[in-house]
Amino acid sequence: MDVLGQLLNTTLVFSTALIFAALGGIFSERSGVVNIGLEGLMMFGAFAAAVGGYYAQDAGMGAWAPWIGVLCAMAVGVLGSLIHAVASITFKADQTISGTVINFLAAGSTLYMVKLLFDGAGETPLIDGFSKISVPWLSKIPIIGEGVFDSYPTTYLAIVLVLVIYFVLFKTPFGLRLRAVGEHPSAADTLGVNVNRMRYIGVMLSGMLAGMGGATITLTTTSTFAHNTISGQGFIAIAAMIFGKWNPLGAFAAAVFFGFSQAIRNYVQLFEWSQNIPQEFIFMIPYVLTIIVLVSAVGRSSAPSALGQPYDPGKR
Amino acid sequence: MYRLKKIFTTDSYIVPLVAIVLGFLVGAIVMLVGGYDPIAAYAALFKRVFGSPYDFGEAVREMTPLMLTGLAVAFAFRSGMFNIGADGQVMIGMTAATVVGIKLAFLPSFLLVPLAVIAAGLCGGLWAGFAGYLKAKRGINEVITTIMMNWIALFLANYIVRTFLLLPGQNRSENIPASLSMTFLNSTFDNARLHWGTLIAIAAAIFFYIFLWKTKQGYEMRAVGLNPHAAEYAGMNVGRNIVKAMFISGVFAGLAGAGEVLGVFHYQSVFAASPGYGFDGIAVALLGLTHPLGVILAAILYGTLTYGSAGMSFGADVPPELIRIVIGSIIFFIAAQGIVRWVLKPFYFKRKKEKVL
């Protein structure tokens, strides 16, 4: 076994959920709606995947059960994001507030339902989840083969989605409209784009993707949903989205960076020289590094200009 | 007198009140769907809080850090920033108070305690001020830096406790000799862990109000919060105001940390994960409409609900997580005031007709 390959592989396992959620954040924020609720949406997804996956497995669906879990997560993620959409788009509520609401409702309702469904248990029953798939003969390539081409199906899906979403956002009329609505809604409105509809779509897509992110965590890492299954990943995904300048490729790179720094924790301790460094400092590395990179990077972080503002056609 | 009347006749208080009622209703519906008895659950909740002097004191103890973190988030909001980092600032404040409280224990306590509290406020302020500095000088989004600094604070606090202050064989620091406890209330409140931090919190709220609405510096901060470009055009130093606002915000959070270690626990644990003070603070700030009086009231509500939720599970067998649904719904209805006004519409029409007659 090759250490580098393993490290790369673990990195991708940790990154996948962040990639999904950060992509979701991009859809919402590019359309002009702040989504601080990614954490809650991931929680909804993780919960739905654990429950849906459990019942599907119980019904004897075998290898298809995790996919049912993913579908449930997407659906519940969209439903959760609708709360955010209704409050912040239709009723013009402060977007930060309604995002925080999502986090609260998710933390409360998922655990409440777990206790209801499973007789007061604090977590869902263990499920099988996904198993890794190795791509024929590509997985024979040294390092990269073991690192990339022997991964969970969700990882492949995430990487494909990065490219698809990049294409959709920057090369299709739909993407142009979505971005226009986030940059200059009244101009977009003048040209016949339905601002609120585009924003609804953006927020719902973000719910779907964040839900998939949450599902990834239960189906590839924890195999169960408990109160601490999602603990800060949503906020890291927000950081990855900002770090990646609201661009799918940038967010992908940032998510992989955060995943890498999660993974390296486990590997650094294998080396003898690391024994002299207090473990807390090793844990700190990714967060310190992020700040350093942000400080030294040229150019300010450029959010969509209408981010956070409800669209009011009567206002100029 | 006229102003007082105005406060109670404008609908600024109607919407939050209706939102609270609607939030409880949502919670009741969720309980009914789950097959629980909502009336018994809410009765158990309030009985837990107001049932005994001890529980009442403990509920006040629970409200105290919420007031300060709520003020911290609200203050930053007023100056146009989103401080997600109150959590880290609380941890840094705790650590500073613990270090001073243990390492300078040779000082007489009338010096030691204020010193520990000041250290907590100062370190919390500097921790937040750094994020403000990065925003002012390099234009780095404070959301991302404060999220990162939460994690750094968690590990830094653990490192300091584990390396310099550890009680041998335990996962926590030595006991702190400095104490903020109100020991003279012990007999009245049956040894509930009441401490001076509550008064510090109320003083902070008063400072918040006077500073922001009665001083020139506060005026500048609000101007920067409302429109940084206009403020700059008017000759205000936007960058300096950002750093100052974040510093003050962090001081509030740091003081919350001092109250927790000096007044409640009297030691500092090694945290397995973020203790979550800051995220509660966001909710409290939003519930309180980022006004100091509102924040204090919101912290009282929030503290009552979270402390009472444990009573719900004992008294009515309802999962305590339900209370998060109630809190979330209340914030939702406050945020989406349109919904509340829509609910209230029939009543409003009635009242107006009466006036015409």
From TrEMBL, chain A:
<feature type="transmembrane region" description="Helical">
    <location>
        <begin position="33"/>
        <end position="55"/>
    </location>
</feature>
<dbReference type="GO" id="GO:0005886">
    <property type="term" value="C:plasma membrane"/>
</dbReference>
<feature type="transmembrane region" description="Helical">
    <location>
        <begin position="152"/>
        <end position="170"/>
    </location>
</feature>
<dbReference type="Pfam" id="PF02653">
    <property type="entry name" value="BPD_transp_2"/>
</dbReference>
<keyword id="KW-0472">Membrane</keyword>
<keyword id="KW-1003">Cell membrane</keyword>
<keyword id="KW-1133">Transmembrane helix</keyword>
<dbReference type="InterPro" id="IPR001851">
    <property type="entry name" value="ABC_transp_permease"/>
</dbReference>
<feature type="transmembrane region" description="Helical">
    <location>
        <begin position="200"/>
        <end position="222"/>
    </location>
</feature>
<protein>
    <submittedName>
        <fullName>ABC transporter permease</fullName>
    </submittedName>
</protein>
<feature type="transmembrane region" description="Helical">
    <location>
        <begin position="234"/>
        <end position="260"/>
    </location>
</feature>
<feature type="transmembrane region" description="Helical">
    <location>
        <begin position="281"/>
        <end position="299"/>
    </location>
</feature>
<feature type="transmembrane region" description="Helical">
    <location>
        <begin position="6"/>
        <end position="26"/>
    </location>
</feature>
<dbReference type="GO" id="GO:0022857">
    <property type="term" value="F:transmembrane transporter activity"/>
</dbReference>
<keyword id="KW-0812">Transmembrane</keyword>
<feature type="transmembrane region" description="Helical">
    <location>
        <begin position="101"/>
        <end position="118"/>
    </location>
</feature>
<feature type="transmembrane region" description="Helical">
    <location>
        <begin position="67"/>
        <end position="89"/>
    </location>
</feature>
UniProtKB/TrEMBL annotation, chain B:
<feature type="transmembrane region" description="Helical">
    <location>
        <begin position="56"/>
        <end position="77"/>
    </location>
</feature>
<feature type="transmembrane region" description="Helical">
    <location>
        <begin position="194"/>
        <end position="212"/>
    </location>
</feature>
<keyword id="KW-1133">Transmembrane helix</keyword>
<feature type="transmembrane region" description="Helical">
    <location>
        <begin position="322"/>
        <end position="344"/>
    </location>
</feature>
<dbReference type="GO" id="GO:0005886">
    <property type="term" value="C:plasma membrane"/>
</dbReference>
<protein>
    <submittedName>
        <fullName>ABC transporter permease</fullName>
    </submittedName>
</protein>
<keyword id="KW-0812">Transmembrane</keyword>
<feature type="transmembrane region" description="Helical">
    <location>
        <begin position="282"/>
        <end position="302"/>
    </location>
</feature>
<feature type="transmembrane region" description="Helical">
    <location>
        <begin position="143"/>
        <end position="161"/>
    </location>
</feature>
<dbReference type="InterPro" id="IPR001851">
    <property type="entry name" value="ABC_transp_permease"/>
</dbReference>
<dbReference type="Pfam" id="PF02653">
    <property type="entry name" value="BPD_transp_2"/>
</dbReference>
<feature type="transmembrane region" description="Helical">
    <location>
        <begin position="12"/>
        <end position="36"/>
    </location>
</feature>
<keyword id="KW-1003">Cell membrane</keyword>
<keyword id="KW-0472">Membrane</keyword>
<feature type="transmembrane region" description="Helical">
    <location>
        <begin position="112"/>
        <end position="131"/>
    </location>
</feature>
<dbReference type="GO" id="GO:0022857">
    <property type="term" value="F:transmembrane transporter activity"/>
</dbReference>
